[in-house]
Queue: 3 jobs
Job 1
Amino acid sequence: MICVFDTLNHLPRFELWEALFACTRAHLRAGGLFIFDVNTVTKIHGLAAYPPFFLEAGPVTVAMNVDAPDGNGLSQWNIWLIERHRDGSLSGLHEPSGSSASSWKRSKMASDGRFHGARDAR
């Protein structure tokens, strides 16, 4: 079973991470693998230190920035799409995406109790 692209980070509380680990364990066959990746608090702080990212894609500009996690490990990814129209006008869309983060140690401790031989493949 795989869970990639930092999917766990979209669960807003660590208790939900633990519930996901428990549910996954209940459905995993003996000897099966559960592979997941996460953004840790340290990684999110690093991303938040960067200036906004911009990408020009024809008439559309994509902009993205990350807000540093608050005291509960919650951060926000801000994504903007700005379209330049032929008449020179602009239209845009802002899509905020909440994200939770945990330390690698806490994530590993929560998964170790449920998965035999949990390993860090960083």
Job 2
Amino acid sequence: MIGGIMQPPPSNPESQLEYTQPTTIYSASSVSTQNYDTGASQFSAQTQQGPTTAQTSLNSHAEQLRNQASTTNNQAANIYNQATIMNNQATPTNNQPAQIENQAAKIRSQPAQAAIQTGLPSDFNNIATIPSQPSATDIPFFWHIPKAGGSSIKEILGVCLGFTIACELGGDPHYASDTSIETFQVAGKRVVNFNFYSPQGIDKARLLGIASSRKVDVFVSPYLHETARIFSPKNQGRLITMMRNPIERASSNYWLMVQQGLQQNPLAPPMTIVDYAKSNKIENNWMTRFLTNKMSGPLQQEDLQLAKDILAAKFIVGLLEFKEESLQRFDEYFGWNMLPSGPQGETTERQKCVKQKLAKAPDSNTFSRIPVKEGSKEASLLLLQNNFDMELYKYAKELFQTQKSLFM
């Protein structure tokens, strides 16, 4: 089962401009002109046979038709001119082939970042594209993948850096509101009064224009598409995330379930990890599904490709196995000055806080670091439910290496 099921994404067919269209319009206009001219001639012929009043009326009608025909001819000429301009635009100049080749060379030099934004879901229209640099009006959005070190990142952002964050803590009923955006202090963090781990809470915040309110320093949520919709062209989102080996994630989720079960009933024998992998309690390709917003039905290769394209076009990717370097990239990307030294080079309180919080990643549950042996029966069963996520993770590791050039 997948917790927090969301509606599937709306269809978003791509629209393509065809340069042949103006020619077709011009031809249709020519036919209309001929019809008007024919009608005018018929009415002129009738004026030779009728009474004077009828003749006057028909002459007047014929004159109107001639005027309409003249107008249509002018319209047709305008459309023809537009078609000529578009055809000229469609024909590369002598310098364009060299420019195109230069652009292609840049793309080939950074293959992991060569995802084409065309065809991405419209939810990402107001998410900034990599490798452009953040502007003063852009807002960081940390996509929280469960059991991948995201809770530690959230603690660093809220406690160590003192940012006002939008996360699950905003769902406190004492502060929740449908009419105003407020902040309050909880668990050592200042948060906005909406639950960003709930699609309903995110939608309430969106309707109140939370992105433009400038009351949030960082958005944190697992709900990628819902949160992406809150941004606007003037207040774009900037995506970062921390990813983890899917087998390790699945194992960590299992041990969390065991820990929670023991807390509720210490005498009850826990489910084995093999039984867990065969049950409906295990997640199915969580990362791929939340990236593509495909929450039900079988995944296909095109879904995996879309997930890769979104990662490459929209994310600064962090990896839990390189958590220190990942955090340094986030810091440099947004200019957070996360690890400043004191006047004499001494360790500051902020540095101590960041290092302490980061050391707790990936997990805080007691059994989280019991590994699943590679090639074991347990690992094979867990992989069956995470086959697309494993391919996505391999791609994320390539992307992590490629993006290194952005921070040199």
Job 3
Amino acid sequence: MSATRPHYPWSEGDALFADELNAAIANAGANAGASGDSFNLLNYIQPTDPDATAGFNRVFAAATALGRAAEVFIPAGIYTISALISVSTAYPLSIRGGGRTVTRINATSAGGIAIVLGAICMVSVSGLTIYNQSGATGGTGLSITSTVANNGPLVLSELRIGAQALAQDFIVNLNLKNISGSSIHDLVSEFGNVNTTGTHMVLEGDPTFPAINTKMVDVFLNKGGMGLRMGDGTNSSVQGVFITHMVMVGVGVGVKWRRGGGYLADALEIVNSHIDYAIGPGIDIDSVLNVQLIGVYITAVPNTSQVLINNPSNGVISGNEFFCNGKAGVTGINLTGTTSSGGLSISGNSFFGFNTGGSTPVVLGAGVSQTTVVSNGFPTSGSFVTNNGTGNFVSYTPLNVPTPFLYLPGALSVGGASGFNGSAPIAKPTVTGAKGGNAALGSLLTALAAYGLVTDSSS
């Protein structure tokens, strides 16, 4: 068998390598050439080639030259690439592996796959593992960038991106820029260690090409310097990020969003997610409109804020669980900002272990206003809420009290019937009887007992 090839791509009828190709395709469960728009990687590489870089470049060149929608199929196997794979397309493109557990790309350089979209088109990437094996930190595992506005949708599913061993990390595992309508489902992103510079996901949008409507479901992020970063704080527009079932373990900062250059940063929703022992804030947001955090479980490390929102503007923080576990200097929800920041509703949250070490469940900064803090479960002692703002409404519900009680800094007037300690509400009673005897005293005791204020055990 000849070890060299006279031309590429290989045809399906190539007698020299037909048996090897067909066996590899069958073992991978593939159907190479089933459609003229489907391109199988095994048709463009030698099965025993230790470096698949040239084969990847050839298969993507063939697919993007088709002039219409195309699929690149990467069968089960371990493929080594020694350079970044760059793909440019103006047509819909699907990159499909045989499955995250069986199709793996090992990058021995500082990059994995970079896709540039030159026209509005759909792109999907699924069923792959991309690992950095370069022995050094650098590059991006999977990068997708659009050069036109309103580009999408983008579908990413069943992917694993990251590092195989210590000190072998991409700088960014997944980088998305200027994409509208991204859907990310079943993503595992990991770093070999707690890398203070590595970021799992970056989501950015140029002012003229904003990143709009990004949905993430079932995402697991392990270690690394930052979980999800949105915006660059200077010249970026990101709108509409919706996250469900995201788990972060041991990251530096969980979610960080910075509004850039006065451009719109609007709508963040995190639901039913878990942020475990983030070294920095679990959620760190600056000047983002309409934030909703619902059903989020956050544990703490000392001297940090679990949720830090600067210049908040409308939103809901509800049904979350904040665990301090006696660590010092922890703030559960920390709102800061300039005058007229606020408009948040903080309710139905539970705060555990905040009664030692100077930790505080909720801090409302001097510029925060029109924020309500009601019906939350607070510790049994210590400072519940630090309210330095104006126009905020705060009430307390200690965890050790079976029914809520209301604390108001001012006067309270109840216009209708009322009751206390579980007694049925009654109208204002009248005390009768002579003051010279015990009749008036008996009438007063009866009235107080009816209100629920005393138990009359007198004789």
